## 1
Amino acid sequence: MIPIFDYILLIFLIVAAVISLKVKDLLSASMVFGIYSFLICLLWAEMGAVDVAFTEAAVGAGVSAVFLIATVYNTKRRSSD
Amino acid sequence: MREFLEQSIQPYFNYWVYVILMMIGLWATIAKNNLIKKLIGMSIFQTAIILFYVSVGVKKDSKIPIIPHQVEEHHAAEDGNHAGGHGEHGAKRVTEKHVIEPDKFANPLPHVLMLTAIVVGVSTLGVALAVVQMLFKEFGTLEEDEILAQIKTADSASLDV
């Protein structure tokens, strides 16, 4: 565990979470959520949980981003909040 | 202030961020109006809980939980068997190499539990997004208040008849 890297990743994580909830375009929200997932994957590799990290990279970042984009494609792109 | 920073925040920074992320997720799940935003908040909540569990398993200066030098151990055992007179020496080397210091590895038990949690979280998200698409086909909108208003007018219309 590397402390400085840890702090930077955790702060970026909070920023990415807030941006993905605040942005009004749902496609942008899905993409920023993908960025959030890759950041937390990097955090787990750094904390020594490599198995969790590659599961998150494949399943969390890959599949859930695809699900979200498919739903936005089939429905509306604008959000009121 | 400095004392508080050094004693309470710096050693437990992972836990502070875990609580902040969990509260962001809870706020989005309750207060957001758009259904997809609610689901993104739910996913953030889940990853926050996984962050807590993985943080529990981390030790200071710990490495990934894989035991190295497996091949060398095997070689040392073979040498001991073949060398005859030096057999005792070889066996001693093997026992020395078998010592594993748990302090140097992160605890792998929470990692294994959280693998299941990630997969379950993604399948929950998939089912929820399928339900959102069905709701969009039915009502033509993703906003919660508009859906509730449509349900209300439909209910009052059926009561009037």
## 2
Amino acid sequence: MTALRILLLIFLIICAVAVSFSKRLLVSIIIYMAFSLIMSILWMILESPDLAITEAAVGAGVTSILFFVMLKKIQSIQMDPDQEDES
Amino acid sequence: MSRPNPSYEGSRRQKFMQWLKGEYDPSEGKLETTEPDTSLFTDSEYHEIHLYLRNEYADNEEHFRRGVRKHLTRIQKLYRLMAVITAIFMTVLLLWAVSYEPSYGDPNAPENNEVATRYIEHGLAETGAINIVAGMILDYRAFDTFGESCVLFVALCCVLILLRVDADEEAGSHAREAMFDRHFEPKNDIILQRMCRVLVPAIVIFGIYVVLNGHLSPGGGFSGGAIIGTGLILYLTAFGFANTERFMTEKVARLFSVAALTFYCFAKSYSFYTGANHLPSVISTGTPGAILSAGLIVYLNICVGIVVACTMYSFYVLFRKGGY
């Protein structure tokens, strides 16, 4: 259990650093989603399932979706299939 | 009531209101202004002056741009340096603060005071909720939770003000938003729709379960409401607005939110009134473990769940289309 916890904490730090180093906003949001999911597993390990459910629903679900919609609003997501394959 | 005040005409207040509306300019006729004298130059001279000024302006602009670029690079370097310094400072500060925290499970930690002890020892008997967290947030500290629900409602109102596209704002605005929205929407994606047909009922039922079992198992109004809202958003993404607007419109969301908040307010007022005056309450705590136990907590959980679900769904719709 301790090994899993340390592994998750390392993932958490990697996610937090990777968000600030990713150039594309879409990638940042997906990393943020991963951060929230890892965080919700960590809440589960820390014996607070209330927080785990809320983190999974709000952090990984609703907030990320709102970020996606906002990116679409400012036309930051490229929907052209030719451009999608790049980078 | 509606008779105009005779001293209102020409008063400071009237002038102020006119100035506010832009009808009255206090500096009009008081500032010295001169019309350009046309008799001094001929047309060709004017042309020359114009050319000269334009060249001069272009030179200046080139100069200005170069200066701005230099300035900007300097500011960007400074900005990066300051960002790094701030980040390092905050990291050191936070780590320093964490090193003063009591260790995990320390019995002498400041949070292990008589309040926590009371919640754990008497929580079940006083609130009837097996989930002590639910008993805490919806019974001992119900006023906090009411404030949180109101904050969500106020946030929804702010998003409404910012993002709503009004009918009278601009003629083509609504149509343009809708067209722009259609451009990105998955157009009847068969994989998404089939998956949604399986997933959405499960998600919504799980959300309802989390809300209704808030006093028995982990979860509660906020988490359950968020789950239901996410399910609705998934349904909307798969099947489009035409399907969701059959049951979920702005009117419905507003009605449910306001009704839930009002019920919460009245229910909690009653419970505070009876509790503060040591009056017997008609709401019993029931047998712990039953679904209809724990007094008001079930109903308050349902209220919070409704408010949260409506808010999440409305956020998504407003961000996406700017109105229902």
